[in-house]
Design goal:
The complex is a heterotrimer of chains A (169), B (268) and C (413). With 169 residues, chain A is α/β, with parallel strands linked by helices. Chain A is built from five helices and five strands; from the N terminus they run αβαββαβαβα. Chain A is 33% helix and 10% strand. Chain A has a five-stranded parallel β-sheet. About 3% of the residues of chain A have low confidence. Chain B has a six-stranded mixed β-sheet. With 413 residues, chain C is mainly alpha-helical. Chain C has a single domain, classed as Cytochrome-c3 Hydrogenase, chain B (Orthogonal Bundle), CATH 1.10.645.10. Helices cover 49% and strands 11% of the residues of chain C. Classes of the chains: A alpha/beta (169), B alpha/beta (268), C mainly alpha (413). The interface between A and C is large, with 40 and 44 residues.
Chain lengths: 169, 268, 413
Amino acid sequence: MAQHKVNYTQDGGLPIALTSVDKIVNWGRSNSLWALTYGLACCGIEMMASGASRYDFDRFGTIFRASPRQADVMIVAGTLTKKHSEFIKRLYDQMTEPRWVISMGSCANTGGMFNTYATVQGVDRIIPVDLYLPGCAPRPETLQYGVMLLQQKIRANKAGNAQKAKRLM
Amino acid sequence: MRAYKPKNDVQAKPYYTDRFYVAPQVPKFDVETDEVFASDLEAIKAKFEVKDAYIQVEQMVVYINAHDIYGVLELMRDELQYTQLSEMSAIDWLAKENSFEIFYQMLSMTKRKRIRVKYFIENGQAVDSVEKLFRSADWSEREMFDMFGIEANGHPFMKRILMPYDWQGFPLLKTYPLEGDEFAAWYEVDKIYGKEARDVIGPELRDPARVDRYDSERFARLGFEVPKGTEITDDMQRTVQEYQEKDGVFLIKKLDKESSVVIDDPQR
Amino acid sequence: MAQVKNRLTPFFENITFDREDNELVLNFGPQHPSAHGQLRLMLHLQQEQIVKAHPDVGYLHRGMEKMAENMIYNEFMPTTDRMDYIASSSNNYGFALAVEKLIGLEVPRRAKVIRMLLLEINRLMSHLFWLATTALDIGAMTVFLFAFREREYLMDIIEGYCGARLTHAAIRIGGVPLDIQDSFLHQLRVFLNKLPQNIKDYEDLLDSNRIWLMRMEEVGTISTEMALSWGCTGPMLRASGVAWDIRKEEPYELYDEVEFNVPFSDKGDNFARYRVYMEEMRESAKILYQCMEMYEKCEKDGETELMAHAPKYISAPKLDIMTQNYSLMQHFVLVTQGMRPPVGEVYVATESPKGELGYYINSQGGPYPYRLKLRAPSFWHTGILTDLLPGHYIPDVVSIIGTTNIVFGEVDR
């Protein structure tokens, strides 16, 4: 997990959606979240299972897109290793704004059971994360609940200005 | 005075060892007890020096000299029908004898037997590559180099395979800590953001047992989740699992927990 | 594009101004749309044909072998789950068998039957997942959704048994900790009754499909010598002509008491591997029927032991731990100090759904293994791409990677 504090209200004032334009835009954004397929390890299999026949993801409006330029939300599912960290940063930079990150599973949250030399201890050392899902691997219902929570978060935010870079540096 | 921690083996040690405990051995049997192994050993002994041989857990273990390995494996593959090299790697004995022990696990499908060929090398010595005999040694030797630093002479591409190309240090040595040395700890920060970011991002949190109930930046109490940064007091209310906002969302079906149904028949 | 200052410079690998030929270097990066995980393939292309392929692995290397040197044997069991995360119990079983051979334990019969049930269910899960992802890569999304539906039923059964869908840790050293639940056999029978019709559905969709045949036949042919030299095992080797199945040749558990065939082919191309997998699913169903009969026979014969009786190495059953004082003390010592096997080494290979999964354990009498080497079949199946891909076209790369059934938890450990 990250040790640093990220100030979300810097440069902004309160991030609350007030106007009806905000509401419409946020409604549209939250109900068509296109996810970037970022299944790295076992959690990726649960992510696929949640997109498959029994726990369908399409009913949320979520389609898995392979290209970061077409994706809104990156669901980091699985262990991030130090060899891979460069690529996740690259892909995050290539995503167009507004973009969100869901960290799924213990390995993505904090490094998980792999307290070793080659594992990044939490994906939020590299990219800013909006939602953390616990579990090893989290059930597909957890991922769906997480997506619904993210939708609530999107609807509560100001849509007008560009999203501020969620990083101190 | 602080406790003495040996530097040549920093892996976890059992905190209690009985002074008078003598560990039992897995039984070793003489090679003569099995004819197939006995004849294979005779064929190897005819051409190369065999330092030791025994049968343990139904597999024969043969100790040879380091420089003979190519010849022995060629003999085994061509004449003794050990057509597959299942695995090869090294064991670190630097703390005890300043040497490595390399083992090759061979499989014969026609005879249904497995043989392990082993030898010792000194620290800094390189081994002969057997990639020309078995292509699987290509990647196995690269992995051995990556993890231990043992090079293979005659290998076409002696580069790291599991760790990044610019990694320093050989992870599976006993002197390498499990959580990584300083280079490993800051690798991703240095690579992506540069050394200046070390203070901003902070060191890795490697203490798996630390739980702080009043820290809402890094911990969340199940059932009492709050947004990051909220002050935690002693009389928090349970957070209700809300799937959608209270008033519902335009055009989206309102999910009501009370109207949900538990499905009994999984074969739906 | 990057709003945040960082040191990553753009990659311009494919613009090389000092080449005279038309070679293009294509980076099949570590993030794929296909489901196989983190493989980075650097392909040198001559127009559309591949002349050189260089797979780069290690993007999921988590240091499991080093973790094992710092953990007690029982503590390492859930870590083995994460190697081949599609069929977790097979990894658990390989490790448990290796430690049991090291110690010299004999597992009770009922535990063996339950282990076989779990292993074959895992084999079915793994093959269904393989079919789903390979079909998805080639474009047959219907098969993906159908196969995942079947897989969900199996995951329900396993979830009812041990509580976890994906990473089971259901097999312990010395046996199994839990007996199967009441609905297990009934649900399994219902599933197995529908399975032949389901497999027939997949074959109807795929077997005589012109697109499938064009992409699978004559593509990715692995000759027998190449397969043996590269250390291929499992369905890859069986589709290349060698009928080697560890369950038949070096039987473990009760595989010598069940009757099943070993499907193999001598063509060695993608289609041969696909047929081997489909037939193996049918063989697994056969084994499961026999295992269910064996379980019921165990019930009738009154064999109720689930864990081996070896007080120096294995804890007592949970009921005894909670009620008897000495069992509690023994369990405490085994958990805090760890079980200490004899000094020696062992290499045990089992037939996991991907191939020969081997565990090499070198023990020096301590509670932690001195060296644990995990022999994962997918490691060499990824290496063989170096020799296999040149001469094929880019779409063939996807279908070849699909049929080699690689799982990166195993490759990188």
